[in-house]
Each structure stands twice: as C-alpha cells, then as structure tokens.
Design goal:
single chain; Rossmann fold; 2 domains; 17 strands; 25% strand
C-alpha cells in the first residue's frame, strides 16, 4: 500500500481536534511535515505527533518530494496562496472553510486544482453528521417532495472574548458570516440547491473584544430565493446569551416541502424530526446505522463522543479520494459556491438591496 505523505499548514486547535485524529484512522496516510508561523503552536503539534520536520514558511513544506497532499488550517487570508502553491507543486489539497477571501479567489483555486488533476476538498465538516447525511439521502430520494422553505439558525454565546485573527477583517474577511454561517449555506446548497438571489444584514455589537479591536460582524441574517423557487432564511450569532458553544449550542435546520418537513439539530446526531403534509404533528425517526459513518471508514461510531468523532471521517474521505483518484465531496467548487453567497451577503448589507448570485 503506497503511503500518502501529508503536510499540515496551520497547527492550531482545529488541526489537533479534527485533522490529526482523522488522519490517525487512515493507514495509508502519514504526516511528514508540519508548518505554523507561531513557534509555540508548532512545538505543541510536534510533541503531539512526533513529526520532527517543521517549518514556519509554507513554501518550505508544500514542495517537498515526500509530501503528496496538503491540509490548510490557517487564517483565511492565507488559504488561496497556500492552496495555489500546493496545486502548482502537484499536491492534493484539503482546505478549511471559508475557502477564500472572495469568490474570485475560490473559483481560481477550484479551476487550478482541476487543471492540475489533483484532489480538492473544502472542510464543510458538518455534512458528516449522521443525521445530516441521512437527511440529504431522504431529500435526494424525494421524501420532501418539492422544497418550499429552508431555514437554519446557529446560535452561540461567545460573549466578548478575544477571537484572535477571527475578529480582524484583513485576516478573516468576514466574521460570523464566513465563520459559522458558511456551514449552513453549504447545508442549503446540499439540501435545496443553488441560490438565485438574496438580501442580507450584518451587525457588529462589540468593536472591542478582549481588549483588542474587532472590525467584523457578530450577527448575520440572510433572506434567500433558490433557483428552484424555494425560499430560505438563515441566521447566525455569536451573542445568543445562554446558548453555550460548539455542539452544545443551537444548530437547527428545518426543511418544508410539498410532502414532508424535516428538522435537523446537530446535537441530535442520531435522529431527525419529521411530519407529513396534513399530519397531526412531528415524530422522531432514528438514523439507520449505515449512516453513522462514511462508507468504508474504519472508525467505530460507538467509540468516543459521537458529536466529535464524526469529524474524523473527513480525513478518511480525503485520503480515500486520493487513493481511488475520485472527486472529493465537498469540493472546492462547493466552497466557491458558498463564497459567492458570502460575497453577495456582504454586498447586500452594504447597499441595502437584493443581490443576484452567479448563474
């Protein structure tokens, strides 16, 4: 079995929590180099992995002969330059979301990867929640009928603490919009399809966070119309007091159609709520075990916290696509589609007008 050498650029929390445990499930993969601009972060990752090849400049690792794939988990402004350098060197790329700082960058990344013939994947990790995988299956099967309405609500309580680079526009691009709502935009595309037009609003409540300037949004809402005619309402906030954080907070999606409605909640990973047209109300359905993990994944879904371990299948999907030379799902094109919505939401908030999406 041919080894697939991996370098990880950006060794912060998301790498330690998601990427490294996921790669540990893949016998074909071996992390051969680590990169981070912060020495302390790099040393912590080196100690955790035992990988002794380290660098503070991505150029020093993405061109290495023993590197076949690059995982990018850096501040957003670095995604495009690192990805394009890796692609130019013939490396496969898994990149955190939001994929880029704007749609033009994201589209350039996707097209460059296709031209180079390398695998490309956007880290929309929440697609892998078993309940979301099953819901996508039911929608594709036609259980919803004609989609009427999509709505999502992501509410967390982050207070006024310092968010580091995530509260700096030149490093992150957007705040809550790109950080958290991007996943729910991807849900909308997965379940309903492309958006046609939207109107949005963004609000910043705290110009200072943890004693440092914050020039990005704490809250965002989008009203959308999809190409197929369905409507959408998406809201996300860092300031929903008492809602807690991460999977302990509210991450809600509801889809209403001509035949049925479905409700997905991230924290309820093994069940969905559903009700049929004209029915007495919603009932709970359990997720079949075949959807508890990605097909072929060596992960035991009964081991560990199921609200954490589903994320590890992302690495398996990436490595498996490299091994099979098959397309990654979600790809850079999915990331670019979400970025187009992000750009349109920013423009709408600035102009106070509806904005059309690219065809």
């Amino acid at each position: 079995m041919k080894r697939i050498g991996i370098t990880i650029v950006g060794c912060g929390g998301i790498t330690l929590q998601n990427h490294l445990p996921g790669l540990a499930l893949c016998p074909e993969a071996r992390v051969v180099a680590l990169c981070d601009t912060d020495g302390a972060t790099l040393e912590r990752a080196r100690q955790q992995t035992g990988v002794n090849v380290t660098a503070t400049k991505y150029e020093d690792v993405v061109r290495r002969d023993d590197v076949h794939a690059v995982i990018i988990a850096t501040p957003n402004f670095l995604h495009a330059p690192i990805a394009l350098a890796a692609i130019a060197a013939g490396k496969h790329v898994l990149c955190e979301k939001p994929l880029a700082m704007n749609y033009a960058e994201a589209k350039q990344m996707a097209e460059a990867a296709d031209k180079a013939g390398v695998r490309h994947m956007t880290a929309f990790t929440y697609r892998l929640v078993p309940a979301m995988r099953y819901l996508a299956h039911l929608v594709k099967r036609g259980d919803v009928g004609e989609p009427y309405h999509y709505r999502s609500c992501r509410l967390q309580d982050w207070g006024t603490r310092n968010l580091g680079w995530r509260q700096v526009k030149k490093l992150a691009g957007t705040g809550e919009l790109g950080d958290m709502l991007s996943h729910r935009i991807d849900f909308a595309h997965l379940l309903v399809g492309p958006m046609k037009r939207l109107v949005a609003n963004l609000k910043q409540w705290h110009p200072m966070r943890g004693g440092a300037p914050n020039d990005l949004d704490d809250w965002v809402a989008i009203l959308a119309e999809f190409q197929g005619g369905a409507t959408g309402v998406l809201e996300s906030s860092k300031l929903a007091s008492g809602r807690n954080e991460s999977w302990r907070s509210l991450d809600y999606v509801e889809l209403n159609g001509s035949e049925r409605s479905f409700v997905f909640i991230t924290g309820e990973w093994n069940k969905l709520q559903t009700g049929k047209v004209g029915g007495p109300g919603f009932e709970t359905i359990t997720i079949p075990e075949e959807f508890w993990k990605v097909p072929g994944s060596p992960r035991d879904p009964r081991q560990g916290d199921p609200l954490v371990t589903f994320r590890y299948d992302q690495a398996f999907e990436f490595i498996d696509a490299i091994r099979k030379q098959s397309p990654c799902v979600p790809s850079f094109y999915d990331g670019a589609r979400a970025q187009a919505v992000t750009d349109a939401a920013v423009k709408s908030a600035e102009t106070r007008q509806w904005v059309e999406l690219p065809g």
